[in-house]
Amino acid sequence: MEANNRGTGRLPAAFLTPGSSSFMDFLSDHQPELLPGKRQLPPVQGVVEAPHGTTIVAVTFPGGVVLAGDRRATMGNVIAQRDIEKVFPADEYSAVGIAGTAGLAVEMVKLFQLELEHFEKVEGAQLSLEGKANRLSTMIRSNLAMAMQGLAVVPLFAGYDVDRGKGRIFSYDVTGGRSEEHNYSATGSGSIFARGAMKKLFRDDLTEEQATTLVVQALYDAADDDSATGGPDVARRIYPIITVITEDGFRRLTEDEASELSRSVLQRRLEEPDGPKAALL
Amino acid sequence: MSTPFYVSPQQAMADRAEYARKGIARGRSLVVLQYADGIVFVGENPSRALHKFSEIYDRIGFAAAGKYNEYENLRIGGVRYADLRGYTYDRDDVTARGLANVYAQTLGTIFSSAAEKPYEVELVVAEVGETPEGDQIYRLPHDGSIVDEHGSVAVGGNAEQISGFLDQRHRDGMSLAEALKLAVQALSRDTNGSEREIPAERLEVAVLDRTRPQQRKFKRIVGRQLSRLLEAEGAATEAESSDESEEE
User: Fold this and answer.
1) Which of B70, B79, B92, B217 is the best substitution to test chain A (most A C-beta atoms within 10 A)?
2) Which residue of B has its CA nearest to A121?
3) Which residues are listed as membrane-spanning (chain A) (predicted)?
């Protein structure tokens, strides 16, 4: 086993055995100890302290979907990191944003990206968006033992469905339960506030630009009321990560774009601290 | 009980090599060329779905001639090797040299093990670098040897003649259209020297393009883009032939 991944010697039989197109299946047959879910857990008293990521938001618009996240990671009442990245491309047409235990989440994303890429290379075709969402579900389920010890990972998955020609959002619970969300969704500790903001601001006919503004407004409201969510940090030039997925594929807004968007939202909030007002009726 | 005939090791190996070479020669040849922005793979392949070229990892591509089920098996083994290595260490730790070594060991063990029939395949593993000097191309014949190639390489039945043709005409810094044109010219030549037409629908073309902004540099060239490049190729041929006539 040891020598197999050192790049010397003949490819072991497991590598040349026809089988699944899934990298996770290959790993669980060949080197199960490398899978995050297969790790032996030591007995722990109480909850393990580890940096947590907080708010991720997503909103659809005609032609695509926007997925964004704040940059703060907290450990108890301490800000563990101010510029953590919690939104990642999963492949060309999808992205995943992660709230929960940061270390495990980043590892899960890495494995998820690899899972999609591996399938694409072996099969010569991409998984359907539904298939990708189901794969992520399986991965969260395999983390259940750790989730029970307080090391939960709760992702939000968004992608452009090439077959249906529209953006779609999937949310998860700690057990891997998956549900498709319509119009908008959020996950993480600040999500209740973000969801409220999006509920009031969402419309069916948003442009891409309006949709990106909407997620910044929602993240601002989440940071306003949730201490674990960080707002745009103008002094340190740390802005939310905003990604857009359309027919043209995944795109992350450049720092300049994110900065401009955040600053214009901040500017308006100086005049109206509670943000845009929705009509009463 | 009859005693088996004594066969000298030299003879046994020569027989196995002969067997593998004949198998490879039944398939069509393919070529891999360096051009200014990367490495291009060109082959004749009537199938749209069963590929001769594919992506192994970010900067690494794979090309194979010979028996489909055998090289497909090796290809998937390579993808698993690369993905596992990248997952265990880092994406930068997956190299064409490492992959070529593993393939060489695998092919070599199979070739010299009396219990297995030799694989009837010839592989090319190529990695595109940041600059043309960083490009790596390895040719792996059926017996598990490795040949470090530069500029251009051909594998398959008619490989010797095609690489002779390419060696004379390939130069560094060709554009993609020029390299493609040269590759198609090389593949169109029959063993007896006469030329035949290969229509664009029968061509499989892929590139490792170092200028691609994505981390994954492998890209298939199909449909409109391919015909556009082949048309540009027509223009290039004319330009070149007029150059030649001037020289004359």
Assistant:
1) B79
2) B55
3) none
Which of A34, A50, A49 lies closest to A84 in space, CA to CA?
Answer: A50
Q: Which of B51, B98, B105 sits opposite A10 (nearest CB)?
A: B105
ipTM > 0.85 for the complex: yes
Give buried/exposed letters for A228-241 (b at 16+ CB in 10 A, else e): bbbbbbeeeebbbb
Domain boundaries, chain A: 50-271
- Fold for the domain defined by A50-271: Glutamine Phosphoribosylpyrophosphate, subunit 1, domain 1 (3.60.20)
Is A213 known to be catalytic?
no
pLDDT tens-digit profile, chain B (248 residues): 677 788 898 998 999 999 999 999 888 899 999 999 999 999 999 998 899 999 999 999 999 999 999 999 999 999 999 999 999 999 999 999 999 999 999 999 999 888 889 999 999 999 999 999 999 999 999 999 999 999 999 999 889 999 999 999 999 999 999 999 999 999 998 777 778 889 999 999 999 999 999 899 999 999 899 999 998 855 544 444 444 433 33
The minimal CB distance from A34 to the residues B56, B81, B88 is found for B88
Distance (Å, whole) CA B46 – CA B131? 33
Q: Do A118 and B86 touch (CB under 8 A)?
A: no
What are A180's two structure tokens? 């498709």
- Whole-number Å distance between alpha carbons of A110 and A102: 12
